[in-house]
Request: fold
Amino acid sequence: MASMKSLCRLGFLFVLTALFNSINAQRILISEPDRDDSRRMNFEIIGKMGNHFLIYKNIRSDNFICLYDTEMKLVEKVKHEYMPDERLINVDFFPYPDFIYMIYQYQKRNIIHCAVVKLDGMGKKMNDPVELDTTLIGGSANNKIYTTLSSDDKSKIIIFKINSKNKERFLITTKLFNDKLDLLKKTIITMPMDERNDHLGEFSIDNEGNLAFSKFYRTSNESISKAYMILKRAMQDTLDYYPLDLEKMFLDELRVKVDNTNQRFLLSAFYYNQKRGNIDGLYFLAMNRTLWKPEMEKTFEFSEDLRHEARGESSLRTAFNDYFIRNIVVKRDGGFLVDAEAYYTRSRYSAFNRWDYIYGSPFAYPYDYYFYSPYYSSWWWRRNSMSNQQVRFHADNVAIFSFSNKGDLEWSNVIRKDQFDDETDDRISYNVMNTGGQLHFLFNLQEKRNLLLNDFSLSPDGKITRNPTLKGLDKGHEFMPKYGKQISARQFIVPCFYRNYICFAKIDFN
Reply:
């Protein structure tokens, strides 16, 4: 009798455990491939509108917005025939609760047009296209003229272009709009470029419409020896400069992030103690938006223990030399997380480091600012990064650092991975899903000859957990997590290859 009770109790616990695991398991649903959705298709994940998931597709000269239901079944395929048949340069989407702005650029003869269309929740246009700006060019444009950014709360949208024909004086034109696309302010600013090797870095807009970016001096692909943080206030026609304190120090790629809660901008970069030296640590700067003065400017030197954790196959001295900063995540109290990935390429002839990526780094932006384009964009970057070179792309460990609002290290950790692919880097690297209590790092790992999508979660105290394999992974699907997008508090859409087609998978984090 006692043994029977024990058995019942065990059975009950088994059912309870199974139920708990089933409730907490991540679920993945994958769309059926459309016969026109070839691997060469350009796409952009727009987001979630009601119970539908919207994805833009550009197939040759045709443009569609496809609606999928909660089971990722195709509901409707809306063709946008008013868009140009050729010379479409770029498309950006800005979804709101009940409508979407689609801002696109195209070339007609020697003029680049920037236009906007308002779409409803079914992806259909609500009005005729409205032209926002035009630019006369001397020849064919292969990159974007305009960059379009939105504030975190979507109350502000800015489009800007940079004419760098005169290498000594850049002409920056900005147009700031509200969420109704009323023009709030147009500004044309001439920026002196004091040195022949001056460049402009990443741009970021806050909820008030203030635009912050970096300007730096770099000879060829050398380390940065001089740099400024620059603010263009929303309703002013001037620029505020702050020179970074780089005495006896050199920086690498500069990353800028808005901290709307604390009304400041963060800048972060790796630093070296000598030109083309080994990476010694992280530099960061927190600029007060109102006073345009630093609340914090300091460096963090990597310890030997950190180097040992992050080094992979490198030596301790060179442990971080292949790392690039991928994300800066701001906390409510002004603290922040920085995550960085070891990324490098090799050809059959030689290997290339961060100073001479002749094949291009996915974390570096082009320096021709007459045709300014941001450093990373899903369908635009993929379309322009396909190479016929015999190159092997590598994406290895991810190092994560948590800092307090004073810039002190709270904890650090490393996610170990070893990824590579030939000819393209579509299937390597990672993306981050923020579910509030945790950050989920999504990336592919090779398991028994299959490339499977993995989920590693990061808790607020820095603990990393490898979650069970996602439920519903079908054999034959190869995921491209770096082009995925978080579309709600608990849902993420990631594109994937299936044979010669592109499909889309929805992950539900329960």
User: Anything to note?
Assistant: The CA atoms of residues 111 and 136 lie 5 Å apart. The mean pLDDT is 87. The chain has three helices and 36 strands.
